[in-house]
Amino acid sequence: MRKPSLPLWLWAGVIFVFLYAPIAVVIVYSFNSARHGGPWQGFTLDWYAKLFDSREKIEAAKNTLVLGLASTGIATVLGTLLGYGLSRYRFPGKKLFSRLMYIPVVIPDIVMAIAMLMFFSLLRDRLGLFELGMTTMILAHVTFQIPFVAIVIRSRMIGIDPAIEEAARDLGASAAQTFRHVTLPMILPAVVAGAMLAFTLSLDDFVVSFFTTGPGAGTLPILIYASVKRGITPDINALSTLIVLVSVIGTLAGLLLERPRRSSGES
Amino acid sequence: MQTQNRRLLALSLVAFALAVGACTKAQEPAAAPADAAAAGPTEPVGPCALNIFIWSEYLDPEIPKAFEKKYNCKVTIDLYEDNESMVAKLQAGATSQYDIVVPGNYIIPSMIQLGLLAELRPANIPNLANLDDKFVNPAYDPGNKYTAAYQWGTAGIYLRKSAAKHQERTWKLLFDPALQPGPFLLMDSPREMLGMVLKWKGYSANTTDTAQLKEAAEVLTAAKKRSQGFEGGVGGKNKVLGKAVTASIVYNGDAVRGMTDDPDTVYFVPDEGGILWVDNMAIPAKAPHRDWAEKWIDFILDAQVGAQLSNFNQYATPNKAARAFITPADLANPAIYPPADFMSKLEFVNDVGNASKLYDEIWTQVKSK
Amino acid sequence: MATPGRSKQGVEVRFGERLTPARQIVRSALTSGPGILWVNVFLLVPLLAVIAMSFLTRGSYGQIGLPLTFENYTRLAGFGAFGFDPLYPLVILRSLVLAAGTTLVCLIAGFPLAYFIVQLKPRAKQIALTLVVIPFWTNLLIRTYAWQILLGPESLAARLGTALGLVEAGQPLYPSLGAVYLGMLAAYLPFLVLPLYSSFEKLDWSIAEAAMDLGADAPRVLRHAILPQVLPGMVAGMILVFIPAVGQFVIPDLLGGARTVLLGNAIQQQFGSSRDWPFGAAIAFVGMAVVMIGLWYYARTAGSDSEEALL
Question: Which residue spans within chain C are E strands per DSSP?
Fold first, then answer.
């Protein structure tokens, strides 16, 4: 394999600068003492201090975390089972359902968001259930998380040597036992990776949350959007920097967990 | 696969039919609680909690804190930037989640028709008597059945003097390319923005004449193409302060506070005239804490609290008892209390009934071109 | 010992047990069942509701109800209350053009990048891929509003723009179509690079080397030896960019002001200030139709190869 040529290095360099410039500028500007988001005026940690003072932002952070953890929990369980089931068992209509499962992955999120909004409104009118709020957001998030988790699990299952499971069955274990004691430990890194993926998706989501949220259930992305619309205030930069930090740490952790099993360079 | 597809089709049709059936029943206006009448004052039961849905930067943070202290309450505040989005949220179900909303006068008749508001029980709101005569029994809510005035004011041009190439007090700054002061923003509020264009053209801000509306749409679309886009009043003010634009359209109170922050900025309603608005406190139809909401309205209508509110957000108070406590400088400020002779050039934006659909259509056109 | 294969009755023997069709269904119900049920109930059924909603009427106060009507679709086609105006067809066209343009730009930027990464040593490869993935996982909203700062009135980029004569002094580079493209590129590049890269990984270089030995120049090598092999990943990446890009509304909203109204903004407006759910549903349905056609075409032409590439 030859080494990349100089033009390619330059190209890659430009692209990486381009990809990281937004992140860098947010971090830098979170220390900018200019009050209305104007040009650089001086270094300050004030905006970080202000964050912890704001009840609204702490509430939003709490909501984001609750939403992320709850939805990830549910989606990981259902998604793992789904990925496993699709890779092992056949049933009538399987091909169709496999295809349908991809819809949340590729559908424009605004279409998904309004569809759920309508659905919840209908249910609320008829049954009085599903007031917009944390519950509806969790339900919505799980819906787009499941396919992603399932895809990760399924792709891992393809790499699993069936001989091990066969051996367990031959030794007298039931299917459920085999799954719990043999299969699951083998795919555990993928399950964790799927969970991290789901969590990041939830943390990152804005559009779906925006349409399915209710009073007091605002999340950080919703808060940031409202603030940006009103005129970027520097404390939002501080908040964003913290969120970026969490995402970066989470991503690295997820990748590290995935790596030992991987022989190829894919991520 | 054939039977597969057919089954799927059949299922879809059934689901479709069910969905249609469900959707059509979905929007029956809920019967607003009609127990206003001559009942005596009711005392709130249970612990105090209040969910307020209000415009951003419209409420002195000390006021909910004082209310919380007085009644041992937990007050949560959610924000919005325009009337229509607030109503959209209520229609989507927030009527049972918020206790107080603050709609502009022109949208109140629609809200009443849609059954989104609960009636006020005057026995629980003795301070209603403090309202200035102009705001008692208003046309948009006869008898104050559903609302009590909160603040009123104007909307106009807010610009940075040192950066503006033109500063004449005319709407032409925005609508005539020759007089453009610099990068500018328009206001993201359909009735009000269109109203300002109509006033400039010499028409009524509540016209239902399609030719006039079309003219206004053309002016606005042309202006949009030269502008930096649409922004809410508060966002526009902040962008001028942040020097991201030279001019924007802003509500007067926000502008006055901006001017104090940065004396290089100025606010005015152009000479051709403009629009007036009145924001009102109202209680959504299924508010979870109706009694406490009424206590809140009573609290705001108190003379001192009312003055504290207006002194903070620098809008005009509809509370005649509060006037005694308003900062004298504010009372004399024409940006907050327009002089009597100028009032004739200002027009309230009102509900236009069925013609609302025309305004909706025009606005969508302007935004989408 | 049980060996994999089918016995005479059509009962499979796999993974050490007899899997009758009935057993497979039960197992499927227990494992795949909940997940599939969830997605069906909470997404597929609501999507049907959207279609249903698009045929309803919006009353003068914003209430929704009968009669069933095609009015939303005729309005979408351009026949509104003020005469014919191809407003919405243009909005949809603009969205498709933006999505296609974004895909193209991502391809131009991403192809060399993928080629670059595959040539690195394994350690460096990991690092490079991680670097590509990290922004991908950072909040899109934050990255997008950061472009407002980057393109703001006194920023480096804006001053460059003034020097180049693109804007007047002191004016920001956004809102503008260019800013939207920049934002879209930054948002969707990883979606294209990752599947493309995974195809590059599986590339058989000997074919390219053989072509070069036979005297082909670089463009020919690219076209005939490399491109056919990376096509599955490339197409997967293009689909992953194009389809979501069609309905994107945050980026045009924050970087395009109101001068660039696209499908996503139009839908959002109907559910916000315009309060016209049936019309919004109609717009969404047309958007979905585009997605469905794209997916169907993709499934047809690419087959199972592409599914793997998607992973």
Answer: 5-6, 12-14, 17-19, 57-58, 64-65, 79-80, 83-84
* Residues shown for chain A: 267
C-contacting residues in B 305-364 (Cβ below 8 Å)? 353-354, 356-358, 360-364
Residue B354 — very low, low, confident or very high, per pLDDT cuts 50/70/90? confident
Q: Which two tokens stand for residue C79?
A: 């026949």
Write down the H helix ranges in B183-324: 190-200, 210-226, 233-241, 252-261, 290-300, 303-313
Look up the pTM and report it.
0.82
Question: What DSSP character marks residue B120?
Answer: P
Mutate to test the interface with C, among A88, A101, A111, A197 (most CBs of C within 10 A): A111
Contact yes or no for C182/C255 (Cβ under 8 A): yes
Chain B positions in Cβ-Cβ contact with residue C87 (cut-off 8 Å): 364-365, 368-369
Instruction: Kindly report the backbone phi and psi dihedral angles of residue A104, in degrees, each rounded to the nearest multiple of 5, phi listed first.
Output: -60, -20
Query: Residue A119 is inside which H or E element, if any?
Result: helix A109-127
Facing A216 at nearest CB: one of B76, B92, B235: B76
For helices A220-230 and B233-241, the axis angle rounded to 10 degrees is 70
* Cα distance between the two ends of chain C: 34
> Is ipTM strictly over 0.90?
no
CA distance A161 to A166: 9
**Cβ atoms A33, A46 nearer than 8 A:** yes
CA atoms of B19 and A168, how far apart (whole Å)? 48
